[in-house]
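Any chance you'd type out a single protein's sequence alongside its tokenized fold?
>
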Amino acid sequence: MDVFTTLRRSVPRRLATRRIGVPPEQGATIVDALVANGTRHPERTAMRHREASGEWMSTTWGQYLLGVRQVAAGLAELGVGPGERVAILGANRPEWHLADLGAMANGCVTVPLYPTSSGEQIAYLCGHAHVVACFVDSHAQLGRLLEVRDQLPALRHLVVAEGARRAADDAVVGLDELRAAGADRLLADPAAVDARIQQIDPAGVATVVYTSGTTGPPKGTMISHANIMWTLRATTPPYGIGEGDRWLSFLPLSHIAERMMSELAPIGVGGETWFARSLSTLAEDLPACRPTVFLAVPRVWQKLRERVEDALQKQPPAVRAAFARYEALGLRKLADHEDGAGPPQIPGLYETLDRTLGSSLRRQIGLDQARVLVAAAAPSHPDLIRWFHAVGLPILDLYGQTEGCGPTTANRIGNVRIGTVGVPFPGMEVRVADDGEVLLRGGNVCLGYLDDPGGTAALLEGGWMHTGDLGALDEDGFLRIVGRKKDLIITAAGKNVSPQGIETDLRNQPLISEAIVIGEGRRYLTALITLDPEELTRWAEAHHRLGDVEALSADPDVLAEVQAAVDVVNARRSHAEHIRRFQVLSRDLTGAAGELTPTMKVKRAVIYDRYRDVIDELYAGT
């Protein structure tokens, strides 16, 4: 076997002539697009997943479409009809896609649930959405659902991917069993599913996606089939996304960003979805997939950078010195570009180092074939974005919300303004209201909130979607997000302070994991800070210290490091935005403790209540 054969087997063949974007023949719904792919290219790979043996297994578009048709027919056989709501509770895997598209093909409305949801959260969401059937990926998830089943009178059917348990509960059926029943129904009536697909109203609800619920109960965002297809047609052409592109699916599919990016976009354009085994295996799965389009939240990008820096510490001094030079030249080149200055002082050296060190780095990470690199779902620190640009991985900040079907604005390849979230996608209008709130209008705007006419009216008041975010547009139309309207702090002196930027700056400092700024009605700002366990472990090893996170969080030298980080952040901000005092908490915030949403956003009200005594102590004597 020669090297070229090995290369062809390890990297999927790129199409000689590839379509860009979502062409008209893909239809008016995402189900139409799937049917088009399965009909025109039945042998082309649609999905890849890793077996327990470590081998990557492929699913073709023809197999994908067959599985979806069988799931749709199986649901119909169970008596689940068009318009009824079907939940999906599980990790990223091909069965998730089969459940989602299969339910839609049956005319149902899908309701994705976070796999980390508590029993209480599952009960609330399924109850609010009047879910009649739920797909789960494991018996462990099934057990959690069964524990709250008595609170869900509408729930009639549970479908588990790991196999049947009908003997234990008549409501439980295995996915294979459901597909077999669907196959039998299709034999008896081959056109049954096609008829339901043709009856799907593009303007009707395709899915109900719940918001994170940082300030109250989650709201069920109603997204139509037309919203999905309009958004895909608006967002894929500007980046040349089309046939043959590859995505690695690893963030929760219950989040609109990952679902649009690694499930719905590949169906729309005819690309490939690869499934990472978990977030913890990302370092191994990235080089296997070598995605051409890659989305990650800032925290993941930060961890990738830390992994690179840790690996560098094990290299010989000459390699470390060369990389430091490469990094410095890359940052200088970027700064010159941002300032409108001339070329770097040493022409050609950066390009030489990029072809050697940079190329090796990108290949080892698994992003050497990536054309589109996106940071989304949380604020990115500009210094983090600049570092990746310097090493040849130009991350594009993207902004959007569930209510806007995911993306609204983004930086463009070759037209990046770091510190902003870019410009609106074609067809999307963005303006800033008099009070600073970002407003949106376009075909991506949702239908409103499920069973919440008051919330819907407030969201869509005046024909614009009210995002709840505070922002500013520069003279070239680039949007900068300042913070959340509801999070705005008004100090005792009447100063308006948005905590988001301060918190992002703090989280970008060494050792700090989370930072919650406090100051509503107070004379000055304070902060609750948690430490990153991994970074703290590295610090302890370097300083020859023993102890767990709780013990180290009180170490005087650790506290001195945190104070230095706070000082750095304060130096960049106005006097009113200075953090005067802080308290390091003895552990990091977690979703299990109810402190973070499934999307890792801080629940401020929970933190304020839980740490009320700590907060009061920060203001004692003032």
